[in-house]
């Protein structure tokens, strides 16, 4: 299979998986293991918390559906910059440089992104920002709600 298509059926299936997930998001990698670029697609709900993190590879965030807030952080956990992407925003995509603290927030009930990233992905290379809550904690939910207030 030389060409892999991304169609509405794939995206709707991804949304269905996100809605059933405890994390309220789902990611699919549409590339083969011998590819240096991973074509990741993520569907997420507004209640999905992505802990601020960094990794040693570049990644691109391209909204396909909905609106996304990409937050860049300083080493002290303060917000350095906010990037609004998606419907009605002028920013079409962002390129996140290696070792940049960041996270994503869905600003619409459902958001879908294309997330090309250098591969292969190695979870052990991901670092989480200190002073930010771990996933699936009450503090994480409050952190997310605070980010959603900023995103309005």
CATH class: Mainly Beta
Instruction: Report the CATH superfamily.
Output: Jelly Rolls
Order of helices and strands: HEEEEEEEEEEH
- Give the averaged pLDDT, no decimals: 92
> Over the alpha carbons, how many angstroms does the gyration radius reach?
15 Å
Helix content: 10-25%
Count of discrete structural domains: 1
Low-confidence stretches: none
How much strand content do the residues show? 35-45%
Terminus-to-terminus distance: 43 Å
Q: Give the CATH architecture.
A: Sandwich
Number of DSSP strands?
10
Main sheet strand line-up: 1-2-9-4-7
Instruction: From the 3D structure, determine the CATH topology.
Output: Jelly Rolls
Quaternary form: single chain
Overall 3D geometry? globular
Number of helices: 2
**Which structural class do the helices and strands define?**
alpha+beta
The largest sheet is: 5 strands, antiparallel
């Amino acid at each position: 299979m030389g060409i892999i298509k991304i169609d509405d059926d794939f995206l709707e299936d991804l949304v269905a998986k996100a809605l059933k997930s405890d994390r309220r998001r789902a990611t699919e990698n549409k590339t083969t293991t011998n590819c240096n670029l991973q074509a990741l697609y993520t569907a997420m709900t507004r209640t999905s918390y992505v802990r601020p993190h960094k990794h040693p590879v570049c990644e691109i965030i391209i909204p396909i559906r909905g609106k996304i807030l990409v937050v860049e952080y300083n080493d002290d956990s303060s917000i350095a910059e906010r990037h609004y992407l998606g419907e009605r925003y002028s920013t079409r995509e962002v390129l996140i440089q290696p070792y940049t603290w960041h996270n994503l927030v869905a600003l619409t009930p459902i958001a879908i992104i294309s997330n090309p990233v250098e591969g292969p992905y190695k979870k052990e290379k991901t670092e989480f920002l200190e002073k930010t809550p771990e996933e699936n904690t009450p503090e994480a939910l409050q952190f997310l709600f605070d980010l959603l207030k900023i995103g309005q």
